[in-house]
Amino acid sequence: MPMPLAPAPDVLATIRDYLETEILPALRDDKWFNVKIAINLLATIERELRLGPEADEHERARLTTLLGAAGTLEELNRALALAIRESGIALDDPRLLDHLRETTADALRINNPQWLVR
Amino acid sequence: MGLAEDLAPRLRAAVRRHLGAPVEIDDLKRLTGGATKATWSFAARIGADRVPLILQLASPRPALAPGDPLAELPRVVGAEDAAMMTAAAEAGVPAPPVRAILTPEDGLGVGCIMDFVAGETIARRILREAEFAPLRQRFAEQCGGILARLHRLAPAGLPFLRPFGAAAQVAHYRRAYEALDHPQPTIELGLRWAENHLPQRHATAVLHGDFRLGNLICGGAAIRAVIDWELAALGDPAQDLGWLCVKTWRFGGALPVGGMAPREALLAAYRAAGGAAIDLAQLRVWEAFGSIKWAIMCLMKGREHRRTGRATVEQMAIGRRMEEPLFDFLQLLAGED
Question: DSSP H helical segments within B152-217, as ranges?
Fold first, then answer.
Protein backbone atom coordinates (compact mmCIF):
# COMPACT_ATOMS: atom_id res chain seq x y z
CA MET A 1 0.00 0.00 0.00
CA PRO A 2 1.38 3.45 -0.84
CA MET A 3 1.97 5.75 2.10
CA PRO A 4 -1.47 7.11 3.06
CA LEU A 5 -1.85 10.87 3.13
CA ALA A 6 -3.54 10.71 6.51
CA PRO A 7 -3.15 7.96 9.11
CA ALA A 8 -6.25 5.84 9.75
CA PRO A 9 -6.99 7.36 13.20
CA ASP A 10 -6.99 10.83 11.66
CA VAL A 11 -9.39 9.71 8.92
CA LEU A 12 -11.71 8.26 11.57
CA ALA A 13 -11.48 11.47 13.60
CA THR A 14 -12.50 13.47 10.53
CA ILE A 15 -15.49 11.22 9.88
CA ARG A 16 -16.47 11.40 13.54
CA ASP A 17 -16.21 15.17 13.59
CA TYR A 18 -18.34 15.47 10.44
CA LEU A 19 -21.07 13.19 11.84
CA GLU A 20 -21.08 15.05 15.12
CA THR A 21 -21.25 18.59 13.77
CA GLU A 22 -23.13 18.19 10.45
CA ILE A 23 -25.36 15.12 10.79
CA LEU A 24 -26.25 14.54 14.41
CA PRO A 25 -27.97 17.88 15.13
CA ALA A 26 -30.59 17.20 12.42
CA LEU A 27 -31.57 13.77 13.78
CA ARG A 28 -34.14 12.73 16.34
CA ASP A 29 -35.10 9.78 18.52
CA ASP A 30 -33.59 6.42 17.62
CA LYS A 31 -31.66 7.81 14.63
CA TRP A 32 -30.00 10.39 16.88
CA PHE A 33 -29.30 7.69 19.46
CA ASN A 34 -27.73 5.25 17.00
CA VAL A 35 -25.58 7.88 15.28
CA LYS A 36 -24.45 9.09 18.71
CA ILE A 37 -23.41 5.53 19.57
CA ALA A 38 -21.65 5.22 16.20
CA ILE A 39 -19.71 8.44 16.92
CA ASN A 40 -18.60 7.03 20.27
CA LEU A 41 -17.56 3.77 18.61
CA LEU A 42 -15.46 5.67 16.07
CA ALA A 43 -13.63 7.33 18.95
CA THR A 44 -13.08 3.88 20.49
CA ILE A 45 -11.59 2.54 17.27
CA GLU A 46 -9.31 5.59 17.00
CA ARG A 47 -7.99 4.80 20.48
CA GLU A 48 -7.65 1.14 19.57
CA LEU A 49 -5.53 2.01 16.52
CA ARG A 50 -3.32 4.25 18.64
CA LEU A 51 -3.04 2.19 21.84
CA GLY A 52 -3.94 -1.36 20.83
CA PRO A 53 -0.60 -2.63 19.45
CA GLU A 54 1.35 -1.64 22.56
CA ALA A 55 -1.34 -2.95 24.91
CA ASP A 56 -1.35 -6.30 23.06
CA GLU A 57 2.44 -6.50 23.21
CA HIS A 58 2.46 -5.90 26.97
CA GLU A 59 -0.37 -8.38 27.51
CA ARG A 60 1.47 -11.03 25.53
CA ALA A 61 4.71 -10.42 27.45
CA ARG A 62 2.91 -10.74 30.81
CA LEU A 63 1.11 -13.91 29.70
CA THR A 64 4.37 -15.45 28.48
CA THR A 65 5.96 -14.85 31.90
CA LEU A 66 2.89 -15.99 33.82
CA LEU A 67 2.43 -19.22 31.85
CA GLY A 68 6.06 -19.92 30.99
CA ALA A 69 4.95 -20.63 27.43
CA ALA A 70 4.93 -18.86 24.08
CA GLY A 71 2.09 -18.37 21.61
CA THR A 72 -0.29 -15.91 20.05
CA LEU A 73 -2.36 -13.68 22.29
CA GLU A 74 -5.40 -15.85 21.67
CA GLU A 75 -3.55 -19.09 22.45
CA LEU A 76 -2.10 -17.64 25.63
CA ASN A 77 -5.46 -16.31 26.82
CA ARG A 78 -7.05 -19.66 26.09
CA ALA A 79 -4.32 -21.37 28.11
CA LEU A 80 -4.74 -18.99 31.05
CA ALA A 81 -8.52 -19.34 30.98
CA LEU A 82 -8.13 -23.11 31.10
CA ALA A 83 -5.57 -22.92 33.92
CA ILE A 84 -8.03 -20.86 35.98
CA ARG A 85 -10.90 -23.24 35.20
CA GLU A 86 -8.92 -26.35 36.10
CA SER A 87 -7.00 -24.97 39.09
CA GLY A 88 -3.69 -24.90 37.23
CA ILE A 89 -3.09 -21.52 38.87
CA ALA A 90 -4.09 -20.28 42.33
CA LEU A 91 -7.05 -17.91 42.11
CA ASP A 92 -5.39 -15.54 44.59
CA ASP A 93 -1.95 -15.59 42.93
CA PRO A 94 -0.95 -11.90 43.04
CA ARG A 95 0.79 -12.20 39.67
CA LEU A 96 -2.47 -13.40 38.14
CA LEU A 97 -4.49 -10.60 39.73
CA ASP A 98 -1.95 -7.96 38.70
CA HIS A 99 -2.02 -9.25 35.14
CA LEU A 100 -5.83 -9.22 34.98
CA ARG A 101 -6.02 -5.73 36.45
CA GLU A 102 -3.47 -4.37 33.98
CA THR A 103 -5.12 -6.08 31.02
CA THR A 104 -8.56 -4.83 32.00
CA ALA A 105 -7.27 -1.30 32.60
CA ASP A 106 -5.52 -1.27 29.20
CA ALA A 107 -8.75 -2.39 27.51
CA LEU A 108 -10.66 0.37 29.31
CA ARG A 109 -8.13 2.96 28.12
CA ILE A 110 -9.41 2.03 24.66
CA ASN A 111 -13.08 1.17 25.27
CA ASN A 112 -14.01 3.67 27.98
CA PRO A 113 -11.20 5.69 29.62
CA GLN A 114 -13.75 7.49 31.81
CA TRP A 115 -14.38 4.28 33.75
CA LEU A 116 -10.85 4.43 35.20
CA VAL A 117 -11.07 7.92 36.60
CA ARG A 118 -14.16 7.48 38.73
CA MET B 1 -44.87 -5.49 15.06
CA GLY B 2 -43.09 -2.35 13.94
CA LEU B 3 -44.90 0.67 12.57
CA ALA B 4 -47.59 2.57 14.39
CA GLU B 5 -49.81 2.50 11.28
CA ASP B 6 -49.74 -1.31 11.22
CA LEU B 7 -50.41 -1.55 14.90
CA ALA B 8 -53.13 1.05 15.44
CA PRO B 9 -56.19 -0.74 13.96
CA ARG B 10 -55.48 -3.97 15.80
CA LEU B 11 -54.74 -2.14 19.01
CA ARG B 12 -57.99 -0.19 18.75
CA ALA B 13 -59.92 -3.44 18.27
CA ALA B 14 -58.09 -5.03 21.21
CA VAL B 15 -58.81 -2.11 23.53
CA ARG B 16 -62.50 -2.20 22.50
CA ARG B 17 -62.60 -5.94 23.11
CA HIS B 18 -60.95 -5.87 26.53
CA LEU B 19 -62.09 -2.57 27.98
CA GLY B 20 -65.61 -3.17 26.77
CA ALA B 21 -66.48 0.26 25.47
CA PRO B 22 -66.40 2.10 22.16
CA VAL B 23 -62.92 3.52 22.04
CA GLU B 24 -60.68 5.54 19.80
CA ILE B 25 -56.95 5.57 20.29
CA ASP B 26 -54.43 8.26 19.47
CA ASP B 27 -50.91 9.39 20.21
CA LEU B 28 -49.45 5.93 19.58
CA LYS B 29 -45.69 6.17 20.14
CA ARG B 30 -42.98 3.58 20.48
CA LEU B 31 -41.11 4.14 23.75
CA THR B 32 -38.57 1.35 23.65
CA GLY B 33 -37.94 -1.49 21.33
CA GLY B 34 -35.34 -4.01 22.25
CA ALA B 35 -34.49 -7.50 21.19
CA THR B 36 -36.85 -9.02 23.73
CA LYS B 37 -39.78 -6.64 23.78
CA ALA B 38 -41.35 -3.41 22.62
CA THR B 39 -43.22 -0.82 24.67
CA TRP B 40 -45.71 1.63 23.15
CA SER B 41 -47.61 4.47 24.78
CA PHE B 42 -51.01 5.62 23.57
CA ALA B 43 -54.19 7.25 24.79
CA ALA B 44 -57.62 5.65 24.63
CA ARG B 45 -60.62 7.96 24.37
CA ILE B 46 -63.42 6.17 26.17
CA GLY B 47 -66.51 8.36 26.14
CA ALA B 48 -65.45 11.68 27.56
CA ASP B 49 -62.34 10.25 29.23
CA ARG B 50 -58.86 10.16 27.82
CA VAL B 51 -56.91 7.31 29.44
CA PRO B 52 -53.14 7.12 28.96
CA LEU B 53 -52.09 3.49 28.49
CA ILE B 54 -49.07 1.33 27.74
CA LEU B 55 -48.90 -1.61 25.37
CA GLN B 56 -46.15 -4.07 26.11
CA LEU B 57 -45.32 -6.73 23.55
CA ALA B 58 -42.85 -9.57 23.99
CA SER B 59 -40.85 -10.26 20.86
CA PRO B 60 -40.97 -13.89 19.84
CA ARG B 61 -37.80 -15.53 21.06
CA PRO B 62 -35.41 -16.13 18.17
CA ALA B 63 -35.09 -19.75 17.11
CA LEU B 64 -32.46 -21.17 19.44
CA ALA B 65 -30.22 -24.10 18.70
CA PRO B 66 -30.92 -27.19 20.82
CA GLY B 67 -29.15 -26.86 24.16
CA ASP B 68 -28.71 -23.10 23.75
CA PRO B 69 -28.19 -21.70 27.28
CA LEU B 70 -30.51 -18.77 26.48
CA ALA B 71 -33.46 -21.17 26.43
CA GLU B 72 -32.97 -21.74 30.18
CA LEU B 73 -33.22 -18.08 31.19
CA PRO B 74 -36.42 -17.24 33.02
CA ARG B 75 -38.68 -15.22 30.76
CA VAL B 76 -41.90 -13.99 32.29
CA VAL B 77 -44.10 -12.55 29.54
CA GLY B 78 -47.73 -11.99 28.61
CA ALA B 79 -50.26 -13.40 31.07
CA GLU B 80 -47.49 -14.41 33.49
CA ASP B 81 -45.96 -10.94 33.41
CA ALA B 82 -49.40 -9.50 34.12
CA ALA B 83 -50.00 -11.95 36.98
CA MET B 84 -46.59 -11.09 38.42
CA MET B 85 -47.27 -7.35 38.35
CA THR B 86 -50.74 -7.79 39.82
CA ALA B 87 -49.42 -9.96 42.66
CA ALA B 88 -46.64 -7.46 43.33
CA ALA B 89 -49.11 -4.59 43.46
CA GLU B 90 -51.31 -6.51 45.92
CA ALA B 91 -48.23 -7.01 48.12
CA GLY B 92 -47.68 -3.25 48.23
CA VAL B 93 -44.99 -3.02 45.55
CA PRO B 94 -45.64 -0.11 43.20
CA ALA B 95 -46.28 -1.79 39.83
CA PRO B 96 -48.24 -0.66 36.77
CA PRO B 97 -51.95 -1.61 37.05
CA VAL B 98 -52.71 -4.19 34.36
CA ARG B 99 -55.82 -3.44 32.26
CA ALA B 100 -55.83 -6.37 29.87
CA ILE B 101 -53.90 -9.43 28.81
CA LEU B 102 -53.69 -9.83 25.05
CA THR B 103 -55.35 -12.89 23.55
CA PRO B 104 -54.60 -14.62 20.22
CA GLU B 105 -57.67 -13.02 18.59
CA ASP B 106 -56.08 -9.58 19.15
CA GLY B 107 -53.45 -10.51 16.57
CA LEU B 108 -50.86 -8.47 18.43
CA GLY B 109 -48.70 -11.23 19.85
CA VAL B 110 -47.90 -11.87 23.49
CA GLY B 111 -48.26 -8.96 25.86
CA CYS B 112 -50.53 -6.81 27.96
CA ILE B 113 -52.07 -3.36 28.26
CA MET B 114 -51.48 -1.40 31.44
CA ASP B 115 -51.95 2.05 32.86
CA PHE B 116 -49.37 4.62 31.88
CA VAL B 117 -47.40 5.64 34.98
CA ALA B 118 -45.96 9.13 34.63
CA GLY B 119 -42.41 9.69 35.82
CA GLU B 120 -38.74 9.42 34.95
CA THR B 121 -36.72 6.29 34.21
CA ILE B 122 -33.52 7.88 32.89
CA ALA B 123 -30.86 7.36 35.56
CA ARG B 124 -28.78 10.38 34.60
CA ARG B 125 -31.72 12.70 35.27
CA ILE B 126 -32.77 10.99 38.50
CA LEU B 127 -29.20 11.26 39.80
CA ARG B 128 -28.59 14.87 38.82
CA GLU B 129 -31.73 16.98 38.48
CA ALA B 130 -32.97 19.12 41.33
CA GLU B 131 -36.57 17.91 41.18
CA PHE B 132 -35.44 14.42 42.25
CA ALA B 133 -33.47 15.61 45.31
CA PRO B 134 -36.19 14.41 47.75
CA LEU B 135 -36.24 10.98 46.08
CA ARG B 136 -32.45 10.70 46.28
CA GLN B 137 -32.69 11.26 50.04
CA ARG B 138 -35.17 8.41 50.43
CA PHE B 139 -34.08 6.12 47.63
CA ALA B 140 -32.40 3.40 49.73
CA GLU B 141 -35.27 3.45 52.22
CA GLN B 142 -37.84 3.05 49.44
CA CYS B 143 -35.93 0.28 47.69
CA GLY B 144 -35.47 -1.59 50.98
CA GLY B 145 -39.21 -1.37 51.66
CA ILE B 146 -40.23 -2.41 48.15
CA LEU B 147 -37.89 -5.40 48.09
CA ALA B 148 -38.92 -6.53 51.59
CA ARG B 149 -42.58 -6.53 50.50
CA LEU B 150 -41.82 -8.27 47.21
CA HIS B 151 -39.74 -10.97 48.91
CA ARG B 152 -42.62 -11.79 51.27
CA LEU B 153 -44.87 -12.79 48.36
CA ALA B 154 -45.99 -16.41 48.48
CA PRO B 155 -44.44 -18.24 45.50
CA ALA B 156 -47.39 -20.67 45.43
CA GLY B 157 -49.56 -18.04 43.72
CA LEU B 158 -47.00 -17.66 40.94
CA PRO B 159 -46.40 -21.23 39.76
CA PHE B 160 -44.72 -20.12 36.51
CA LEU B 161 -41.70 -18.67 38.33
CA ARG B 162 -38.61 -20.81 37.85
CA PRO B 163 -36.16 -21.67 40.62
CA PHE B 164 -33.02 -19.70 39.85
CA GLY B 165 -30.93 -19.86 43.01
CA ALA B 166 -27.22 -19.20 43.39
CA ALA B 167 -25.93 -22.52 42.07
CA ALA B 168 -28.34 -22.57 39.10
CA GLN B 169 -27.36 -19.03 38.15
CA VAL B 170 -23.62 -19.55 38.16
CA ALA B 171 -24.11 -22.77 36.19
CA HIS B 172 -26.35 -20.94 33.71
CA TYR B 173 -23.96 -18.06 33.13
CA ARG B 174 -21.00 -20.43 32.90
CA ARG B 175 -22.77 -22.39 30.15
CA ALA B 176 -23.74 -19.19 28.35
CA TYR B 177 -20.13 -17.98 28.52
CA GLU B 178 -18.57 -21.30 27.52
CA ALA B 179 -20.96 -21.65 24.58
CA LEU B 180 -19.42 -18.48 23.09
CA ASP B 181 -15.94 -20.05 23.08
CA HIS B 182 -14.32 -16.68 23.64
CA PRO B 183 -11.94 -17.27 26.57
CA GLN B 184 -11.70 -14.37 29.02
CA PRO B 185 -9.44 -15.06 32.00
CA THR B 186 -11.17 -12.49 34.23
CA ILE B 187 -14.59 -14.04 33.54
CA GLU B 188 -13.13 -17.48 34.32
CA LEU B 189 -11.81 -16.12 37.60
CA GLY B 190 -15.17 -14.50 38.35
CA LEU B 191 -17.08 -17.73 37.73
CA ARG B 192 -14.70 -19.78 39.88
CA TRP B 193 -14.89 -17.11 42.58
CA ALA B 194 -18.70 -17.11 42.43
CA GLU B 195 -18.80 -20.92 42.66
CA ASN B 196 -16.65 -20.68 45.80
CA HIS B 197 -18.38 -17.70 47.42
CA LEU B 198 -22.07 -17.59 46.53
CA PRO B 199 -24.11 -19.26 49.29
CA GLN B 200 -24.56 -23.03 48.96
CA ARG B 201 -27.83 -22.75 50.85
CA HIS B 202 -30.00 -19.70 51.01
CA ALA B 203 -33.56 -18.55 51.60
CA THR B 204 -35.84 -18.59 48.55
CA ALA B 205 -38.04 -15.66 47.63
CA VAL B 206 -39.83 -14.15 44.65
CA LEU B 207 -37.19 -11.97 42.96
CA HIS B 208 -37.65 -9.18 40.45
CA GLY B 209 -34.37 -10.19 38.81
CA ASP B 210 -33.48 -6.79 37.32
CA PHE B 211 -34.21 -4.31 40.10
CA ARG B 212 -32.22 -1.16 39.29
CA LEU B 213 -32.40 2.37 37.92
CA GLY B 214 -33.82 2.19 34.42
CA ASN B 215 -36.53 -0.20 35.59
CA LEU B 216 -37.94 2.18 38.21
CA ILE B 217 -40.41 4.90 37.20
CA CYS B 218 -39.59 7.73 39.58
CA GLY B 219 -41.42 10.82 40.73
CA GLY B 220 -39.73 13.69 42.55
CA ALA B 221 -40.13 12.09 45.96
CA ALA B 222 -41.07 8.44 45.40
CA ILE B 223 -40.65 5.38 43.22
CA ARG B 224 -43.98 5.17 41.38
CA ALA B 225 -43.62 1.83 39.63
CA VAL B 226 -41.24 -1.07 39.26
CA ILE B 227 -41.29 -2.26 35.65
CA ASP B 228 -39.62 -4.93 33.51
CA TRP B 229 -40.53 -8.09 35.39
CA GLU B 230 -39.35 -10.40 32.63
CA LEU B 231 -36.51 -11.91 34.68
CA ALA B 232 -38.62 -12.58 37.80
CA ALA B 233 -37.70 -15.93 39.36
CA LEU B 234 -37.28 -17.71 42.69
CA GLY B 235 -33.89 -17.16 44.29
CA ASP B 236 -31.79 -15.70 47.07
CA PRO B 237 -33.36 -12.42 48.22
CA ALA B 238 -29.87 -10.92 48.69
CA GLN B 239 -29.50 -11.11 44.91
CA ASP B 240 -32.03 -8.31 44.23
CA LEU B 241 -30.28 -6.05 46.77
CA GLY B 242 -26.79 -6.81 45.44
CA TRP B 243 -27.79 -6.16 41.80
CA LEU B 244 -29.01 -2.68 42.77
CA CYS B 245 -25.48 -1.90 44.05
CA VAL B 246 -23.53 -3.14 41.00
CA LYS B 247 -21.35 -0.26 39.87
CA THR B 248 -22.79 -0.28 36.35
CA TRP B 249 -26.23 0.49 37.83
CA ARG B 250 -24.88 3.45 39.79
CA PHE B 251 -24.67 5.32 36.47
CA GLY B 252 -21.75 7.39 37.69
CA GLY B 253 -23.27 8.17 41.10
CA ALA B 254 -20.79 8.11 43.97
CA LEU B 255 -22.57 5.79 46.41
CA PRO B 256 -23.37 2.09 46.02
CA VAL B 257 -27.19 1.94 46.18
CA GLY B 258 -28.21 3.14 42.72
CA GLY B 259 -25.46 5.74 43.00
CA MET B 260 -27.37 7.44 45.82
CA ALA B 261 -26.87 5.84 49.23
CA PRO B 262 -24.55 3.63 51.27
CA ARG B 263 -25.19 -0.13 51.37
CA GLU B 264 -25.93 0.02 55.09
CA ALA B 265 -28.94 2.25 54.44
CA LEU B 266 -30.46 -0.31 52.06
CA LEU B 267 -29.86 -3.24 54.41
CA ALA B 268 -31.31 -1.33 57.38
CA ALA B 269 -34.41 -0.26 55.43
CA TYR B 270 -34.94 -3.81 54.17
CA ARG B 271 -34.71 -5.16 57.71
CA ALA B 272 -36.97 -2.41 59.12
CA ALA B 273 -39.63 -3.28 56.51
CA GLY B 274 -39.64 -6.91 57.62
CA GLY B 275 -36.97 -8.32 55.30
CA ALA B 276 -34.40 -10.83 56.54
CA ALA B 277 -31.12 -9.71 58.08
CA ILE B 278 -28.55 -9.56 55.26
CA ASP B 279 -24.99 -8.60 56.08
CA LEU B 280 -22.55 -6.57 54.00
CA ALA B 281 -20.50 -9.63 53.05
CA GLN B 282 -23.57 -11.41 51.60
CA LEU B 283 -24.53 -8.28 49.72
CA ARG B 284 -21.06 -7.82 48.25
CA VAL B 285 -20.88 -11.43 47.05
CA TRP B 286 -24.02 -10.89 44.96
CA GLU B 287 -22.77 -7.50 43.85
CA ALA B 288 -19.48 -9.04 42.65
CA PHE B 289 -21.30 -11.86 40.86
CA GLY B 290 -23.62 -9.23 39.38
CA SER B 291 -20.59 -7.63 37.72
CA ILE B 292 -19.56 -10.98 36.25
CA LYS B 293 -23.11 -11.58 35.03
CA TRP B 294 -23.21 -8.19 33.33
CA ALA B 295 -19.79 -8.83 31.74
CA ILE B 296 -21.12 -12.09 30.28
CA MET B 297 -24.24 -10.28 29.04
CA CYS B 298 -21.99 -7.69 27.32
CA LEU B 299 -19.95 -10.48 25.75
CA MET B 300 -23.14 -12.16 24.52
CA LYS B 301 -24.40 -8.87 23.04
CA GLY B 302 -21.06 -8.20 21.40
CA ARG B 303 -21.18 -11.60 19.70
CA GLU B 304 -24.90 -11.64 18.93
CA HIS B 305 -24.35 -10.77 15.27
CA ARG B 306 -22.62 -14.13 14.82
CA ARG B 307 -25.77 -15.87 15.97
CA THR B 308 -28.32 -13.73 14.18
CA GLY B 309 -26.31 -12.59 11.16
CA ARG B 310 -27.48 -9.03 11.87
CA ALA B 311 -25.13 -6.47 13.44
CA THR B 312 -26.22 -3.18 15.04
CA VAL B 313 -24.15 -0.31 16.41
CA GLU B 314 -25.83 -0.77 19.78
CA GLN B 315 -24.72 -4.41 20.05
CA MET B 316 -21.18 -3.42 19.13
CA ALA B 317 -21.19 -0.68 21.75
CA ILE B 318 -22.48 -2.98 24.50
CA GLY B 319 -19.85 -5.57 23.60
CA ARG B 320 -17.23 -2.90 24.17
CA ARG B 321 -18.52 -2.38 27.72
CA MET B 322 -17.43 -5.83 28.92
CA GLU B 323 -14.32 -4.63 30.75
CA GLU B 324 -16.21 -2.10 32.87
CA PRO B 325 -17.76 -4.73 35.21
CA LEU B 326 -14.62 -6.88 35.01
CA PHE B 327 -12.58 -3.98 36.33
CA ASP B 328 -15.20 -3.40 39.05
CA PHE B 329 -15.10 -7.09 40.00
CA LEU B 330 -11.32 -6.98 40.39
CA GLN B 331 -11.68 -3.83 42.51
CA LEU B 332 -14.20 -5.57 44.77
CA LEU B 333 -11.80 -8.52 45.12
CA ALA B 334 -9.10 -6.09 46.17
CA GLY B 335 -11.45 -4.76 48.86
CA GLU B 336 -12.27 -1.49 47.14
CA ASP B 337 -15.74 -0.08 46.72
Answer: 166-180, 185-197
